[in-house]
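User: Can you predict the 3D structure for this chain?
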Amino acid sequence: MTRLSKRTPLSGVYRALGVSLTNVAGWELAEHFGDPDREKQALKSACVLVDWSHAGKIHLRGREAVREAAKIVGGDGAPGLLEAHAGGGCVLLRLAEDEALLLCEPGQEEHVLSRLDETRTAIVNRSGGYGALLLSGPRRGEVMERSCALDLRPDVVGEGRVFQTGVHFIPCTIYCAPGAYLLVQRRDFTQSLYEALLDVGRSVGLVPAGAGCVPTVFGREVRM
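Assistant: Here is the predicted structure, written as structure tokens:
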């Protein structure tokens, strides 16, 4: 039996542009947008925007939510409020005292879910219902400065912080990762956010990039 590929919220964009496609953990993604060398150069000198919607997204809520999520990433205890803790191929975003979002590498959702105790907390796999966009490169802060009311420039906000705010009036959870921002938002808002970020970022050299430019990994730096 042929296994159907899963489509990210940007599948319509990919088809409209006729980009080269690839499959990552069962998800159909842009491999590149015509010139992979240009994308890698932009990552080094300006910034790129990459579809990371295929990353696993597991939401936990309840008194034991953060503690339950923390056992997946390991380390010394749970992160503080609106902070992140990465490890074991995942990153734990603490959204509230009793709420957490676990991000994991594509295809690892079932493995992560099998290690969580659903009798201790409410667990929902939101991998298909939410999109994720990665903004990376040395000029990423300038793009966010034009897109968000909060001052999230890398020299102002350190790595490992988490924010919940509007970006181009779209509610987002923002993870300030090493060398990048990861924006998580509802699936139906993802294309609008993607287009708005590209629009404001053109003046600082932002280009769309494919899956090969910044591999989807957690617990390790995303810099290339």
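Helices lie at 11-17, 36-45, 65-73, 109-114, 140-145, 190-201. Residues 220-224 have pLDDT under 50 and may be disordered.
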